[in-house]
Every structure is written in structure tokens, then in C-alpha cells.
Amino acid sequence: MQSMLESIRDPIQQLAVALAFAPEGVAGGLILALAVLIALTVHWIAVRLLRPLLRGRHPYWSALLHATKGPTRLALLVLALAIALPSASLDPTISDIVTKILTVATIVLIGWIAMTAGHLAGDLYVARARAEGFDIMLARKHVTQVRVLRQVVDTVIVVLTVSIALMTFDPVRQYGVSLFASAGVAGLVAGLAARPMLSNLIAGLQIATTQPIRLDDEVVVESQWGRVQEINSTFVVLGLWDLRQLIVPLSYFIEKPFENWTRDSTTLIGSVLFHLGYTVPIERLRAKVTEIVKASPYWDGDIVKLQVQDAKETSLELRVIASARSSGEVAELRYLIREKVIEFLQREYPASLPPLAAATPAPAPAAEPTAGTDVPPLPARSQ
Q: For residue 338, what are the contacts with CB-CB under 8 A and spacing of at least 6?
């Protein structure tokens, strides 16, 4: 490696000797510009040669080449400038500035490559999981793990990269140290200020491993039903039934109880209650309910039952239960059952309707006050 660098530096030093007649700054600038041009040319040629070789045979390596085009270009630029800088004979102040820039660029390059490698590893994991077979629950599990862990890893990489970059500058070294929360009062203050972020990061790791929630899960949080639309590094987005969105901190799902309707399966059971008279034919109604449910596109083909839940003095309490593939389809199935059963009873067995509803006549409309008639005052509001 050392001999290869020396073989590259020798022509650059010869070029510097050849440009000795030029002003010092001009010669150094030409050497650095030439190094940049060579690095860009080598990168362009390498990408053009490797792309057709990897496109058909190695799709993952082809994706890696495409995703790391920017980092590899930056790496060649940094390497070329680092090799050419000693031969540029720049002013010491300018040389120090360029060295600092190259150092920071190297740190950013390492962080960039690490993030890109993490993203590609996650995509490869999901692709292999999908290739093994389609299972909606397993697919949601893998996608949730990859997304949450990706966001956690990205946050950690960004914090480390910024901290290390700041620590290369003496005037702002303390800010880089404080980001690590390593020691002293500054570290304590930074640690307290970063507590919500750190708790959410830890919660993200716990959710990725234990998975109390996954993408597209249907949950009840603070009496609000919603579907998990996004799981970010610090919060979760729930889509509510009325198209609103509920934003919940990620740590909530670790620290507080909530309902998850689709933790193990997306199948849900809905129930519909009817209060009918004792004359209702149970078996006939059971057959009709089964017919209604089986004809519905929302039924998943699993459960349909009619049960006498209670027998009161004046009525029977019947319960219909049926299963569907999701909460939305359960709701639609319940609406359909309620509507069709009431229509069937009104047409075939009106005497079995609730006694009060069947016997109580509709109230007569209130008479309009005529001219000269005093309208009674409203009752006084209690204090």
C-alpha cells in the first residue's frame, strides 16, 4: 500500500517541479484541481465498467454500486486531495484549513457509508423474507423491525458523526464532548436534555425486538381506535377512522397499557345485539343470519353464530357474532347484519319485534301556536 502511494506521489512531485516557475498559490491550485479531475474520471470509468457486469448477475451488488455512488466519489476525491496536498506547497494556514476539511469529509464519509450499508442490509433482509413466502403477519413483522432499527441506527450514526467532527476543532471540542454526555456538568446537562430522545431510542429498540406494535396494526390508545401508519424514531402515527392522525410518543407503547387488536392475527370478531319478543323463531332466524353472513363479501369464512344471550321478562336478548379479516370489514359486516335482520323481521315476523316498539304508537306532532296564543315560557335553569 505504501509503495503504491509512493508511485502515485512521484508523478505529482514531478509535476510540482515542472510548475515551479508559476506562483506558489497557482501551482498548488493546479495540482489539487488536477487531482480532483483524475479522481472524478477514475470514478466515472469504474462505474461505467462495473454497472453492466453486475446488473444481470448480481442484483444486490448492482444496488450497492448505485447506492454508494456518492460515497465512493467522495472517497476518491478525499484520497486524491490527501495524496496531492503535500506536493501542492500551499501556505501553511491554507494547508491546515484544507487538512481540517479533508478530516471532516472523511468522518462524514464514514458515517454516510455506514448509513448506506445499514439501509441496504435492511432492504436485503426484507427481500429475503418476502422470497421465503408470503405471510402478511410475518411480512409486517420484518418491515417493522427494519424500519424501526434503521431509524435508531441512523440517529446513533448521525450523533456520533457530528460529535466526532466537532471534536476535531479545538474551539468547539466541548460541544462534541457534550453530545457524548461523557462527564462533568456539561455531560449531565446534555444527558438530561437528551433524555426524551434517548428514551425513545431505547423504546424503538424494544419495539423492534419485542414488537408490541407493527405497521398496519389496529390499536386503541386513550380510547381512540387507529391503525399504525408510521413508526418513526421518536413517535408513532395512528390513522383514525375519521381521517385524523394521532401522534403518540414511541415510549408510550412501552410504558403504558394499550389495546392491540391484531397482535397475533388480523382476524376480528364483531357482535350485534337484538332485543326481540319471545315469539321469534330462533332456528329460522339463525338460518337467516347464516345466509346473510355467508352472502357477504366481508365475511372471512370462519365464524358465524346466533346465541340467546339473555332472557328477560319481556324480551329475549340475541347476539350474532361473525368474523372478518380486518376491523373495517368487521364494522361493515355488523352494519349489514343489523340492517338485513331488521328488514327480515319486519317482513316475516313483525310480532317478534320488541314489545314497546311494536305497541307504542308514534307521538302526534305538536300543534303550532296560533295567533293570540301565549307560548309557555321555558323552565328556569337551575342554579
A: 272
Tell me which long-range contacts 24-29 makes (C-beta under 8 A, separation of at least 24): 24/89, 24/90, 24/91, 25/90, 25/91, 27/88, 27/89, 28/88, 28/89, 28/90, 29/88
Q: End-to-end alpha-carbon separation of the chain, Å? A: 92
- The per-residue pLDDT for 366 is 46
Q: What share of the chain is helix, strand, coil (3-state, %, to 5)?
A: 60, 15, 25
Distance (Å, whole) CA 145 – CA 37: 42
Retrieve residue 337's grid coordinates. 347484519
Find, among 140, 78, 70, the residue nearest to 112 by Cα. Answer: 70
The DSSP secondary-structure symbol of 244 reads -
Low-confidence ranges of the chain (pLDDT < 70): 1-29, 31, 56-60, 86-91, 128-141, 170-198, 200-201, 355-383
139 in Cβ contact with 108 (< 8 Å): no
**Backbone φ, ψ for residue 26 (5° rounding):** -65, -45
| Cα–Cα distance measured from residue 77 to residue 69, given in angstroms and rounded to the nearest whole number | 12
- Give 2's contacts (C-beta < 8 A, 6+ positions apart): none
- Cα–Cα distance, 265 to 242 (Å, whole number): 24
| DSSP 8-state assignment for residue 90 | -
pLDDT of residue 121: 77
H-run or E-run covering 330: helix 327-348
Q: Would you state the pLDDT for residue 80? A: 77
Q: How far apart are CA 353 and CA 74, in angstroms?
A: 79
Who's near 320: CB < 8 A, 6+ residues apart? 271, 272, 274, 289, 304, 305, 306, 307, 337, 341
Per DSSP, the three-state class of 237 is: strand
d(CA 15, CA 27): 9
Structural domains in the chain, sorted by start: 2-133 (no CATH), 210-260 (2.30.30.60), 268-358 (3.30.70.100)
Instruction: Please give the angle made by the CA atoms of 82, 85 and 86, to the nearest 5 degrees.
Output: 110
DSSP 243: S
CA 89 distance to own-chain centroid: 51
User: Are 333 and 324 within 8 A, CB to CB?
Assistant: yes
Residue 64: what residue type?
L
Packing angle, helices 59-67 and 92-131, rounded to 10: 150
